[in-house]
Amino acid sequence: MNRLSLTVSRGIARVTESALGPYQSAVIRIGFAATWLLFLLREFPHRQELYGPDGPWGWGLAQQLISDNHAFTALMWSDGQAWFETFYLLAILAAAALLLGWRTRTASLLFMVGVLSLQNRSVFVGDGGDNVLHLMSIYLVFTRCAQVWSLDARRAARDEAARARGEQVRPDRVGPVLWAVLGLALSGVTLAGRFDSGRLVPALLWTAWVGLGLWWAIRRWARSQQPRILLDVIANILHNGALAVIMAEACLIYATAGWYKIQGSRWQDGTAVYYPLHLDYFSPWPGLADLMSSSGTMMMIVAYGTVMVQVAFPFTLFNRRVKNVLLVLMMAEHAVIAVVLGLPFFSLAMITADAVFLPTSFLLLLGGWVARAWGRLGRRGAGGDPTLPTQRTPEDSTPGRVGFTA
């Protein structure tokens, strides 16, 4: 009984005292932000057909659907061309800010708004990866995903070094300004009655805005350490809970996909992979598809192997070595899908979801490679500081340290 109590207390302390998986959460932040950013940039010439007010899925059809499912989309606030162009540009900027880890708290909120608004405006646009990105954009709001490999972490490291030298750190002015602008925007939209549909997202935005203000006020003016410690504990619990949900979501995706495949006759006889290789829509490289499908034995091995890997993956999380092997196989499979079937954004979204299970040692090694490559580029360029930051951000600092990360 004492051993059980000790184990439980250690587990509670681990969940509440720190934000777990800083490198894993940074990777999924970078991966999903890059996926959405690249998609928006690639589809920029076709944005009108996909999400514009005059696209095939017209304004009236979108309005009827949203009145039924109550989905949130800011694109339904106005059918004007200027609003659409402005919002599309803001979605690009929000994705870029989240990718770089600049003011990550605000960037994650705006990223979520951009993803939900564009996807809910035209629900029939997507290739499967949009569903993953849709969910993950919400989960990322609850994570402390800028602890490492971000501009926020770089700024925190610079301020910490200045304090260590006894220098006075300049107060953060950008964070409060962003918080005030966000509050004004939320107030204007709320008073205008634009939050009639999608009530959950507006509530989340207002809660996050109040939380950011409370965080900054307590860290700046609270004399006691207790309120600051309480805020850190709440933030750690939310982060660790969201990270667990992201892991469970990835397992659920693979488990359901695998079990549904088992029920299909084409997967049972090993011919399921052959057919998409010969669909014009999924054949950007017909010669490569023909080469891969020329061997019936190879097609059967790929089909059976895909089902076995997807069904087995959730059960291998308890064995680190087997899990890592399956991770390599699944990421390689998605890379092949990206090239052979012409689904790069679906594959990138799934690879990013898989990355949450990567071991920290590998991510540190990967970060070292990127740091050295960036350092070489930096020396060839202006000679700026090329190192990648690994320190915590202001919001992830120890209790008592003042920070604002709106």
Descriptive account of the structure:
With 406 residues, the chain is mainly alpha-helical. It is 68% helix and 0% strand. The chain has helices at residues 2-17, 22-42, 47-51, 59-69, 81-100, 104-121, 129-140, 151-164, 174-191, 200-221, 226-263, 265-268, 286-293, 296-312, 320-340, 344-354, 360-380. Helix 2 crosses helix 7 (129-140), helix 6 runs antiparallel to helix 7 and helix 11 (226-263) packs antiparallel against helix 14. The radius of gyration is 23 Å and the shape is globular. It starts with a helix and ends in a 26-residue tail after the last helix. The relative contact order is 0.13. Residues 384-406 have low confidence and may be disordered.
Condensed summary:
The protein has 406 residues and is an all-alpha fold.
Q: End-to-end distance, in Å?
A: 45 Å
Q: How can the largest sheet be summarized?
A: none
Report the C-alpha radius of gyration, rounded. Answer: 23 Å
User: Given the C-alpha coordinates, what overall shape results?
Assistant: globular
Q: What value does the average pLDDT take?
A: 87
The parts where pLDDT drops under 50 for at least 5 residues are 384-406
Tally of helical runs: 17
**Which class do the helix and strand fractions yield?**
mainly alpha
Topology as a string of helices (H) and strands (E) = HHHHHHHHHHHHHHHHH
Task: Write down how many β-strands occur, each being a DSSP E stretch of 2 or more residues.
Answer: 0
What is the helix fraction of residues, given as a range?
Answer: 55-70%
Instruction: Determine the strand fraction and express it as a percent band.
Output: under 5%
